[in-house]
């Protein structure tokens, strides 16, 4: 990592031992989303979050991420939520509708609950681009999503 993301992992100004996090993981494109989860989970642990303070919720696909994030955000004990998914463009406009709906839904949960809700959803043209961003040559966007919610706390 470079820039502010690296500094956020090592210079958190809050004690994360008492913070609780939700991670919502889409099961569609599971090999990609599992890699994103591992990045987010390990990043939280490395910043001092206790394993017992991380709650994972699986959903069928990225479209379902906002509802699960909303359910977690409603819980008083949850301080932040990380949404992880992967939408790969196909031959139809379905990609555009799903990506826009997911982005708007996650943003709405952020604003409605005034809690950090990270958008760790890959929107790529193909599987290779997704893998490059799920631990490949462009890093792990799950890790970045974890750093983002901690920074927002």
Account of the 3D structure:
The chain has 153 residues and is an alpha/beta fold. It is built from 6 helices and 6 strands, in the order αβαβαβαβαββα. Strands 2-1-3-4 form a 4-stranded parallel beta sheet, with helices on both faces. The protein has a two-stranded antiparallel sheet with strand order 5-6. The protein starts with a helix and ends with a helix. The mean pLDDT is 91.
**Low-confidence spans:** none
- What Rg is obtained from the alpha carbons, in whole angstroms? 14 Å
Oligomer: single chain
The top level CATH class name: Alpha Beta
Question: In brief, what are we looking at here?
Answer:
Helix content is about 45%, strand content about 20%. It is an alpha/beta fold and about 150 residues long.
Features:
single chain; 153 residues; alpha/beta; Rossmann fold; 4-stranded parallel sheet; two-stranded antiparallel sheet; 6 helices; 46% helix; globular
Q: What is the topological layout?
A:
Blueprint: H1 4-10, E1 21-26, H2 30-46, E2 54-59, H3 65-73, E3 80-88, H4 94-113, E4 117-124, H5 127-132, E5 134-136, E6 139-140, H6 141-152
Helix pairs in contact: 1-6, 2-6, 3-4
């Amino acid at each position: 990592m470079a820039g502010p993301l690296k500094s956020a992992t090592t210079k958190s100004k809050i004690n994360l031992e008492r913070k609780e996090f939700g991670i919502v993981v889409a099961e569609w494109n599971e090999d990609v989303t599992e890699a994103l989860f591992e990045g987010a989970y390990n990043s939280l642990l490395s910043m001092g979050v206790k394993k017992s303070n991380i709650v994972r919720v699986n959903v069928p696909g990225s479209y379902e991420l906002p509802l699960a994030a909303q359910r977690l955000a409603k819980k008083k004990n949850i301080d932040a939520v990380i949404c992880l998914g992967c939408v790969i463009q196909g031959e139809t406009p379905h990609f555009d509708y799903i990506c826009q709906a997911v982005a708007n839904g996650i943003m709405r949960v952020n604003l409605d609950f005034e809690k950090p809700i990270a958008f760790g959803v890959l929107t790529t043209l193909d599987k290779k681009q997704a893998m490059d961003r799920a631990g490949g040559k462009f890093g792990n966007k799950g890790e970045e999503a974890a750093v983002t919610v901690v920074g927002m706390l």
